[in-house]
Inverse folding.
């Protein structure tokens, strides 16, 4: 078949392109002349019937291809045709396909007229079976087109729909396929989606380049279900190559998007859990840990979140959390009291203090810091009772779309509640979110419970530590003392820093500063034991080096399971143990004598003391550093330093001069610079030091002990040497009486005379060498009798028949305190102390007291 095209006056004949419809329906033609015989025989007729033109031309067509039984009927039909009538009928034929099969042809016979005006006929033959086969294929194609799971759309050149299949019709609006004809993509998609698809259609129609995997989202009108589609576009051409439009094949990829979203959600949840592991629990503080949980959850998991903890958990009460209390007839009871400790929001409007659940009409979320109860009937209360996550639906008209009330469970105990909420416009919570919410709350609960246990230990350690420190404003003879103690903040553990001021006989004073290595309750307990040991050893009036040696033994005993007495196996294990398993401490111990203004120092691995003399720069004392207490095996040395009147002595712990960002040398230099003007009042000097130094306070405890030297004035000291002879007893009484009268202490004269007489007599009887008598007046009166004997006096009960042996009993009875100490490698002093009178006479011993000694 040919096609005619062109403008007016021009006719262009084109041959039929290969693969045209005529190749498929098998059409042939021939003509019959006025005599009823075949006149013309086309090539397609020769192909269809398998008979060449020379074999049939001039013959009766009925005889050629009609069966014998139909020939009579065929001749009648030919006669009618030649009379001018048309005829159509089905005729069995033998096909010319080489297989000799019987075929069926539909013949169209139309009368014609020759150039001479005679009647003839033109016959068109169609192979019926070929036509039926095409119809079957078309029907099959239509069935495939209609039943395809893919959506098919044919757009015209105007980008309007020409044809759609049933799949498209079902998803995009329903109805019959023909009802969509003439529509555009704007009738089915959101404007942004429609603009994008229209641009792609225009581009494909213009360029002929196919477009693949165009992602669009359609909404099914009847169910409002969102479906994801992947659309492929290609241009459609006619037989002549002219563009007829654009065909689109859409594949429903919703399941793929769902799987991708689930995979992305799983990855996001895993990342969120990893972030939670890294960020939650970095602080041993309840409120900080709660805020760390919300920092992870908002906005990565939800839009609003809050944390409520049981009030008893925060206050440290022993009441087990989770009890249910009746709070009056008005409320009908509810949970135990909770405090809202944290809240976070990623929205600019809505509740300012926390998610709103279904707690009842009029319920107002508590603000951060407020104490409240959840109503008994609420899902939040149910979560606390059961320990299970409760899903809370959003209220109509509320900003909240959905919420989870998640109990915080640690060691099988509910300690609080977390509420996660998503607002309208966010994806609602799903089952995966429920599991994630529970996991986040569980991790935070363990950290909060650890913080609770730490807080309890920290508070107990702090109480213990403060109870072991000396009271404020300690006093000492010949010293003006000021001290400061700054414990680490709540974010750090309690340390083992301590200081002490210990009064010694002879108006001497022991100044102690120490630091147990380590932190927490263990360090605080060790500090208390060492401080007690120091006070005990100091009252024995040992030399500073001896005190530290004894402390070293005690510290090593603290590091063993049951003290110093261990089996050989345990002792061997202790010797091989790492130092981290032993109590280690540093300590500086100084003894100051106000009469001589001499101070004796011994150091066990502690920062050196600092001395500032009048009009001089601050100086680090060259005291042998020694090893820390608890190491053992090394002796301690001591040095004596004469201090000028008005000099400033500073003892301190390393928290004052050392931090992560400041080396010890730099800290010591800054400390010395801060002491450059020590003339101001001592309390002001302490404040100036703490405000000037970059202490990074909170990293470590800080102890600072400062003393200004104020030696006893000469007139407050009476000091005499007495020969070793009996008359020295009377001489001692006379010297004591004279000195007391000059000090206006007449009420003490009789008592002092009596006691001095007893001590000098004992020195003559049991001592050696020259005798020394010394009277010291400060806040009390101290009398000392020195000799070179090593035998220490021992108080005993005299028998009724004994003429002596009652002197020390008398000293103990009449004095406020008494004792003896070694003062030189060969020598001792025996002393007693009396309180200064308040203006009245000194108390006389009663007859009963005196008689009890005899």
């Amino acid at each position: 078949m040919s096609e005619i095209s062109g403008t007016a006056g021009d006719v262009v004949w084109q041959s039929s392109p290969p693969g045209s419809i005529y190749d498929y329906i098998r059409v042939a033609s021939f003509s019959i002349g006025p005599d009823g015989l075949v006149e013309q025989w086309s090539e397609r007729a020769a192909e269809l019937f398998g008979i060449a033109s020379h074999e049939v031309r001039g013959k009766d067509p009925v005889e050629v291809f009609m069966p014998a039984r139909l020939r009579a009927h065929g001749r009648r039909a030919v006669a009618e045709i030649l009379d001018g009538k048309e005829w159509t009928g089905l005729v069995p034929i033998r096909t010319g396909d080489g297989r000799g099969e019987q075929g069926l042809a539909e013949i169209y016979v139309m009368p014609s007229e020759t150039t001479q005006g005679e009647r003839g006929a033109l016959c068109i033959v169609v192979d019926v079976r070929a036509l039926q086969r095409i119809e079957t294929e078309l029907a099959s194609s239509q069935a495939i087109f209609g039943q395809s799971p893919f959506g098919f759309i044919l757009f015209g050149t105007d980008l309007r729909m020409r044809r759609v299949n049933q799949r498209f019709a079902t998803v995009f609006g329903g109805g019959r396929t023909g009802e969509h004809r003439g529509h555009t993509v704007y009738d089915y998609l959101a404007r942004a989606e429609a603009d994008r698809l229209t641009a792609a259609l225009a581009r494909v129609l213009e360029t002929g380049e196919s477009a693949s995997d165009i992602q669009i989202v359609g909404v099914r009108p009847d169910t409002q279900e969102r479906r994801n589609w992947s659309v492929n576009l290609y241009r459609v051409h006619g037989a002549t190559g002219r563009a007829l439009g654009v065909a689109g094949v859409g594949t429903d990829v919703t399941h793929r998007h769902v799987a991708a979203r689930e995979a992305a959600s799983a990855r996001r949840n895993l990342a969120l859990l990893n972030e939670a592991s890294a960020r939650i629990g970095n602080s041993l503080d309840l409120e900080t840990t709660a805020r760390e949980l919300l920092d992870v959850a908002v906005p990565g998991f939800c839009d609003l979140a809050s944390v409520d903890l049981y009030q008893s958990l925060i206050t440290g009460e022993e009441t087990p959390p989770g009890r249910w209390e009746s709070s009056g007839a008005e409320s009908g009871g509810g949970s135990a009291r909770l405090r809202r400790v944290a809240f976070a929001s990623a929205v600019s409007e809505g509740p300012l203090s926390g998610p709103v659940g279904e707690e009842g009409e009029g319920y107002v979320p508590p603000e951060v810091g407020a104490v409240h109860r959840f109503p008994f009937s609420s899902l939040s209360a149910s979560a606390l009772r059961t320990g299970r996550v409760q899903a809370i639906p959003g209220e109509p008209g509320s900003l909240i779309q959905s919420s989870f009330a998640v109990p915080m469970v640690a060691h099988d105990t509910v300690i609080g509640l977390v509420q996660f909420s998503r607002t309208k416009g966010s994806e609602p919570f799903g089952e995966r979110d429920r599991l994630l919410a529970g996991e986040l709350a569980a991790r935070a609960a363990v950290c909060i419970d650890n913080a609770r246990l730490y807080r309890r230990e920290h508070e107990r350690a702090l109480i213990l530590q403060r109870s072991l420190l000396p009271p404020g404003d300690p006093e000492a003879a010949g010293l003006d003392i000021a001290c400061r103690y700054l414990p680490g903040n709540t974010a750090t553990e309690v340390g083992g820093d301590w200081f002490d001021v210990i009064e010694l006989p002879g108006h001497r004073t022991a100044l102690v500063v120490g630091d147990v290595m380590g932190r927490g309750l263990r360090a605080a307990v060790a500090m208390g034991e060492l401080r007690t040991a120091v006070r005990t050893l100091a009252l024995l009036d040992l030399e500073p080096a001896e005190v530290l040696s004894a402390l070293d033994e005690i510290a090593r005993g603290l590091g063993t399971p049951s003290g110093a007495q261990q089996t050989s196996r345990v002792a061997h294990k202790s010797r091989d143990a790492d130092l981290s398993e032993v109590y280690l401490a540093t300590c500086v111990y100084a003894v100051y004598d106000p009469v001589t203004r001499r101070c004796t120092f011994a150091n066990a691995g502690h920062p050196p003391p600092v001395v500032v003399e009048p009009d001089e720069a601050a100086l680090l004392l060259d005291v042998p550093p020694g090893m820390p207490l608890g190491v053992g095996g090394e002796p301690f040395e001591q040095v004596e330093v004469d201090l000028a009147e008005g000099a400033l002595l500073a003892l301190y712990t390393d928290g004052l001069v050392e931090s992560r960002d400041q080396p010890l040398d730099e800290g010591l230099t800054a400390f010395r610079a801060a002491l450059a003007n020590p003339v101001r009042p001592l309390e002001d000097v302490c404040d100036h030091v703490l405000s000037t130094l970059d202490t990074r306070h909170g990293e470590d405890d800080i102890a600072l002990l400062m003393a200004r030297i104020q030696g006893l004035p000469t007139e407050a000291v009476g000091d005499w040497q007495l020969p070793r002879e009996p008359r020295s007893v009377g001489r001692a009484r006379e010297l004591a009486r004279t000195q007391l009268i000059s000090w206006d202490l007449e009420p003490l004269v009789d008592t002092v005379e009596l006691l001095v007489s007893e001590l000098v007599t004992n020195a003559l009887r049991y001592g050696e060498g020259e005798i020394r008598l010394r009277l010291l007046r400060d806040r009390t009166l101290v009398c000392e009798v020195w000799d070179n004997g090593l035998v220490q006096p021992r108080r005993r009960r005299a028998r009724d028949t004994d003429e002596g042996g009652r002197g020390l009993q008398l000293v103990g009875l009449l004095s406020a305190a008494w004792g003896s100490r070694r003062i030189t490698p060969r020598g001792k002093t025996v002393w007693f102390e009396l309180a200064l009178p308040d203006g009245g006479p000194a108390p006389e011993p009663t007859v009963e007291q005196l008689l009890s000694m005899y």
Q: What stands out?
A: The first helix runs from residue 22 to 25. Residues 504 and 539 are 7 Å apart (CA to CA).
